[in-house]
Amino acid sequence: MATHGVSKAFIHSFLQTIIGGVERAEKNVTILNLQKIADALNVPLSELFVFDKVRITGKSDKDILINQIIDSLIEMKVSDLRKVKLLLNEVFER
């Protein structure tokens, strides 16, 4: 998104105003407001409706490894995820 000299503070305030109004049921979510949010976040409008995967957006080795682990976990059955959780708790004494 080209900010045309608009500060990050203004964009943050703008987003908080729209999102806060929606959360408090003071504003209805309109396509126009959704497009404004998407523009301010510099993402396509369709990205606001993508809920299928959790992603870490960084490019560090840690971020890449976390994304690989998430991809593996998403494919697992619930019973296997419970085993992974038990294993992690055991290994890291949580």
TrEMBL record:
It comes from the Bacteria. PROSITE patterns: HTH_CROC1. Residues 19-48 form the HTH cro/C1-type domain. Transmembrane segments: none annotated. Coiled coil: none annotated. InterPro entries: Cro/C1-type_HTH, Lambda_DNA-bd_dom_sf. This is Helix-turn-helix domain-containing protein. It comes from Paenibacillus agricola. The lineage of its organism: Bacteria, Bacillati, Bacillota, Bacilli, Bacillales.
